[in-house]
Fold these 4 entries.
Entry 1:
Amino acid sequence: MSDESDKRARVEWGADPVLGTPDEVTAALQRMVTGLLRTPDGAPLRALEAGAGKRIRLDVPDDAYIVGVDTDDTAMGLNPRLHERIVGDLHDYTAPARSFDLITCWYVLEHVERPEVLIARFAEMVAPGGLVVLAVPHLHSPKSVFTKCTPHAFHVWFRRRVLGFPNAGKPGYGPYPTTLRPAIAPAAITALVARHGLAPVFEGYFEDDKQTRFRHRVGVRGWRWSLARGLVRALSLGLLDAARSEYVVVLRRDPARTPVSTRPGPVGSPRR
Ligand SMILES: C[S@@+](CC[C@H](N)C(=O)[O-])C[C@H]1O[C@@H](n2cnc3c(N)ncnc32)[C@H](O)[C@@H]1O
């Protein structure tokens, strides 16, 4: 596929995942989220940013109540949208069942020891009709394979020296150590949440913008990029796709098939 056809996103959800640039896929995802999110009687949205870092990625209504959880106090302190900042490990965090309308975990699960535990917990914490939005590196890409096979010190060096981020590795700044467990593969995620009554309503793939900038810098674009993608695909027997280095999914709890519980307060608490 060429750069041009990469850009032609199929922007509405059908049977197939959306494929496009990061902006195109995120815009399609945002439309899906905005169209689906409802709260009973127009109550303010309750949102959890799991691994909030410095920013939130999705547009939510101004009156939404947003809880952030992150181990990195410095990064979360720079996040202006949070109403609550809970400093701690997500593995130790829990909230009442069905207590959030929207749970977003964007570029976090690749850093944790037990992503399957966190995904199952998100599935329990989301309200009927609510959404869980997950973004992770796509395990079936050369970028993920390369990241998995190289040490963290190299990732810091690469981001600082090659990609040109002078703060890389300093407090509040990535890269964060990666685990890239098999549980974050697309099929593993959807199989796990199905057991908790959630189903995907949107899936998308895109190429990491840092990878795009890097390969453009070294002249891998146009026909060279098509050739590189073809070679990667052939040599990996169809397993890896260089253009699908990132995966996003929106998971929804079926409002009809889940008993409606009372709406507990918006806050969660670290579990000790
Ligand atoms: C790559 S950043 C992404 C931040 C933000 N979600 C975003 O999209 O920009 C990863 C974040 O996950 C946090 N993190 C990593 N492991 C964590 C854990 N076990 N518990 C809580 N936060 C964690 C890091 O501190 C960091 O802020």
Note: The longest strand covers residues 126-137.
Entry 2:
Amino acid sequence: MAELKKGVIAVSSPKGGVGRSAVSCLLSLALERQGQSVLLVDLDFCIHTQDFFFGAEDRALFGLGDLLAGRQAEEVLLAVTDGGRVRLCPSVGLDGLPDPQALSALLAGLIEREGFDWVILDLPSSCTGEYAAALSHVVLMVSSTDPTALLGVQSLSQSIPDEKDAYLLINRLPLGDGQRTKQGMRPHEMIDLAQRPLIGILHEDGALSCALAGGRAGSLTGDSLVPALNVVLRLQGEQRLLFEGMRDEKRHRRSLDP
Ligand SMILES: Nc1ncnc2c1ncn2[C@@H]1O[C@H](COP(=O)(O)OP(=O)(O)OP(=O)(O)O)[C@@H](O)[C@H]1O
Ligand SMILES: [Mg+2]
């Protein structure tokens, strides 16, 4: 397998709809905000999500399938933000998950030639932990507060080798007082069950879902980016407090103490 020299982040979860694509998009924007250049790779061969999020469907004529078949990067990769530092490889032309060796070699070549600082892999739900781990330096396992999403993370975690850096990332935590929603889990319950450390919490964000649905991901700023910026900083080794909502969790746990 070609050695990948730079930071490759695999965003994964066996449960559909938990926000892998939203998280991949936000992490790319957060890294760009730091002045880094990012290759965002959409590996969902069923739905072309990222070009939709960035309002770039009309420009996404070629994609990863074409790159793997030998097409030049300049014909495939799309600049999708005003800053121009996030380039998207759409999932066009894929009919399944690519062979990991071929993909690894392709990514290594792109990092070398195009000078990307980071690569974000938006993986489909059918992707295994072994596949995600083989292609990346770090695996982010995304879960909503839905218990079945966390079950998915548990089984994903078991298929990722122990020595691999892998973290739980909670997405769509309802904003508010931290009380249990009808079916939702609390962050501390999720941390205990996930078997891997927590890297960050993204709350339910109406502005984010509107921007993504309207193809305006490239213009996301401010509050929507802060949790993703914190995840990026933690990945780079900085200590950052977890989302404010944790305070409510702590208060709640203290109140349970006899
Ligand atoms: N933090 C959030 N706040 C509000 N809406 C969100 C958040 N994260 C994701 N969403 C919304 O949830 C929906 C599913 O998100 P997304 O497409 O990122 O999930 P996915 O895990 O990639 O799904 P798929 O299984 O289709 O690949 C989208 O409509 C998205 O806008
Ligand atoms: Mg997706």
Note: The first strand starts at residue 7 and ends at 12.
Entry 3:
Amino acid sequence: MDSLEDIQHYKEAKASMECPFCKEKEMRSENAEVETEEENLPYMLQAPRYTLDDVFLPEKSKLQVDEALAKINNFHKIYIEWGFKAVDPCGAGTVLNFFGKPGTGKTMTAEALAGTLGKKFISLGMSDVESKYMGETAKNIRAAFECAKKVDAVLFFDEADTLLGARLSNVTQGIDNEVNSLRSTLLIELEKFEGIVIFATNFEKNYDKAFVSRITHHIQFDLPDQEGLRKIWDKFLVPQIPLDGDRECILSKLADISLGLAGRDVRNCMRLALPKAIMHDNEDESVLKLEHLVSAIGEVRNHEKVGTEVSKSRESSRAALRAIGVKINKEETNNQE
Ligand SMILES: Nc1ncnc2c1ncn2[C@@H]1O[C@H](COP(=O)(O)OP(=O)(O)OP(=O)(O)O)[C@@H](O)[C@H]1O
Ligand SMILES: [Mg+2]
């Protein structure tokens, strides 16, 4: 994938892959409030659609999120009344890292945290800050922090491993400098930012240690246990859907047989099951049966065989390089392998 066309292709594919099943991005833009003073901002502000009450997390992750929230809400007490500011003058900002398996609610929790705090939300991926022009990517990062500061929004960086990946030590070309400059900028911005920044990744091992130590709250997102699954199924089985059988029994059964699935998988199961309920019955009697849901769970489990995970740190660095438009030479690739 060396030519400019290929790089463009990569970017388009990446953009379209962000959410293969849902149109969350589009929904977000429809929901985004466009206020006059916000129109000139370089990044889009979103009005959060969730609060933390909408997210069902395993106990440990929930506790960690609540502790981060307590720090944010009690800043004055901790830093001023208790005088902690004297020894931690730069502690006003809160930096969180959400890591874990796909579909476990990292993006949703970031948005929900903003919702609970009553703040706006700015969500950025590498493709939002990247630029093929020298110096522009670091500039875009600075602009994102400025923008978040100006409107007191929660700043969210998705696929953060690309951004926080290990800095290149072998600086031989201008383009390497570019990647290093964007990461140094990010370190500086994180140090001085007094708001809330959240990073999310599936590949936390690719983070540069310099970033790891600057992030206070590292929160792991695990797959839901049976109790968590029951709550997530309960949320997606909205009351208006006609159910065949006792709701509580169905929920228990579903929580039992869907162990190992993530929250997003449950949503996908529902998307697959609902048309089954309509197609297999005559319209007057359309009703969702356990068998529709069981069959949908089977299909979703089968999806796990499709696709692969790209988790090597080299891939992360290469993605960053590609994103800012550098050619990756075949020989170099072979040498690294
Ligand atoms: N813990 C959860 N509680 C409630 N709903 C959930 C949960 N996890 C996932 N979902 C549902 O799945 C959708 C997708 O989850 P989300 O995009 O937040 O996952 P993610 O961890 O960010 O995945 P990825 O690593 O692929 O970015 C959510 O919008 C929500 O509808
Ligand atoms: Mg996500």
Note: The chain has 16 helices and five strands.
Entry 4:
Amino acid sequence: MSELLLTGIGRLITNAGDPITDAAVMMVDGEISYAGTASDAPDQGGGDRIDCEGRAVIPGFVDAHTHVVFAGDRADEFGLKMQGASYAQIAKHGGGILSTVAATRAAGEEALFQEAATRVRRMIASGTTTIEIKSGYGLDLDTELALLSVARKLGHDLPVTVKTTFLGAHALPVEYRDDRKGYLDLVVEEMLPAAAPLADYCDVFVEEGAFSVDEARRVFEAAAGLGLGARVHAEQLSHSGGAALAARIGAVSADHLDHATANDARLLAESGVVAVLVPGASYTLRSPQAPGPMLLDQGVTVALATDCNPGTSYLESMGLVVSLAVVEMGLSAEQAIQAATRGGALALQMPDHGFLVQGSAADLVIIVAPSAVHIPYRPGTNLVWRTIKAGRVVAGAWH
Ligand SMILES: [Zn+2]
């Protein structure tokens, strides 16, 4: 039996009621056995103990949308974008998703794993305890399978829970430039059946220049037949109908939503689709933020994620995402932290994660500050003092 007791917590966010001051948390065998006031805490046996000395504790971050397995970078493209180059101009210069596809196809599985593991270790040190990882930089059968295998291996070898998503319909690969139907046939008839054992979900980038609503519907129907739930890249660069599609097919999440309307929000709320918002992408693209406050007002469950990818959101820190959600998108600090923890867990269908009550997963973060408001208030500083995954300290800083 493994036991860990946290004492001296200045302020505890449980996501299941008001914050608790002067709190304690007891963890036994990877689960929370007590989270409440220190005065009511049970007597501890012979397990480990950490005195938090007034620091705040929140649930571990759940990063519900990433493309963290890739090779190469797009720093040159970033420079062009900051000088005002358009997406189309960048594509003409050989940039965009397809340049990452070329680098990823050439990299090999071992190099892909090592590069991604370095990023994921930094994410864990920044307080992330669960992460969703998409394929989509292979766009051929072998590389798509390699990306999903690497994602699964990250969850196996590192102290983080990983959920995987097949995103074969991310972009049209160069070799199919004049044969959209041929590529979709490949995705549906060959890639999906081969990827299904390695994937929890299927995703499609619904956007002008990527895939249409009708094309996406075909992919999602095939995925549903293989038992894969749907996630949709929806309404990112324009209003393309991805959110309404997500609602109609009962998708698990609709992601991005920068151009979502009040009607989209109503549809998402009615059908229980979680909105996964990625303010880092809007920040990097200098495009409008998703209407987070409106989505919450309409009763949509909102999650926050990094969208970590080398083109439009090379962010690893959920703390920075929380800050962007507060400062740029207009969520309150409490809403943003809840969305980055409990919201993410709901977006990944993990009902026993993202909150701290008896019986929930012992995934949490000790913050080097007296309250969690310091996370949005002090952007760019990693305020994580200890990351605890399944009741074990897995990362820590010495400040
Ligand atoms: Zn994405």
Note: The CA atoms of residues 149 and 198 lie 7 Å apart.
